[in-house]
Amino acid sequence: MIIYPAIDIKDGKCVRLYKGDYDKVTVYNENPLEVAQGFAEAGAEFIHLVDLDGARDGESKNKEILFEIAEKMPVPVQTGGGIRSLETVRDYLFHGVQRVILGTSAIQDKGFLELAVEEFGEKIVVGIDAKDGFVAYSGWEKLSTSRAVEFAKEAEAIGVRTIVYTDIATDGTLQGPNFKEMAQMAHSVGMNVIASGGVSCLEDIEKLKETGVKGVIVGKAIYTGNVELKEAIRIG
Predict the structure, then answer these.
(1) Which of 193, 184, 216, 188 is nearest to 203 (CA)?
(2) What is the pLDDT of residues 77-105, one digit of tens each?
(3) pLDDT digits over 35-85, tens only?
(4) Residues ≥6 apart with Cβ < 8 Å to 219
């Protein structure tokens, strides 16, 4: 199981939101590249980057920072937030990003997702953010009528091989992941499921491993010191 340390970028800074609320922001570092370098030095196999401004506003406002991290890191990165066109996907991949995460664009336009998977294959990841089992989008500020598991099955049928599954209610809370939802998703599809949201300690990572997910995104717990990245990687 791969541990993905997370860097959420807002206004060019490394931050974390509480339950996806843009009004509840904590700034952890003014320099996201410095954070990424620390993760790489700790032994991270993959780094997870999110453009929070892009996710909410629909355009990649922090992409120069994302490009710099992708090009300078000795480990691969995956990133999402505001990626709404094939041209933008190409731009990210050209600048060293290994995998591009599509969220709102994949939910609102299945045709776009099909074209992206056809052209880029396994480099396309779908981000499924759920609240009470339903898919949220536009920076988590809108809720769709699609159930997360059903949408995941549709993405799998299109050819998507990896999803990032986030439980919004637990994200940034340090209150533990939604193990039941993660296990249900992992057993409902044949894709690689990366769990995101609520990891508070090493025991959470051990329990997530039992659910069948192939990866775990750890964010706030690293910044607060609740989880030591090297230990998390050892457990994974």
Answers:
(1) 216
(2) 999 998 999 999 999 999 999 999 998 78
(3) 999 999 999 999 999 999 988 888 778 999 999 999 999 999 999 998 999
(4) 5, 6, 8, 16, 172, 199
Tokens describing residue 231: 């230990």
Is residue 167 annotated as a catalytic residue, yes or no? no
Q: Are 42 and 234 in contact (CB under 8 A)?
A: no
Q: What is the pTM of this model?
A: 0.93
Contact 71, 45 (CB under 8 A): no
In the structure encoding, which two tokens stand for residue 18, read together? Answer: 């509480």
From the list 51, 53, 129, 204, the catalytic residue is: 129
- 53 as an active site residue: the answer is no
Closest CA to 180 of 156, 155, 148, 154: 148
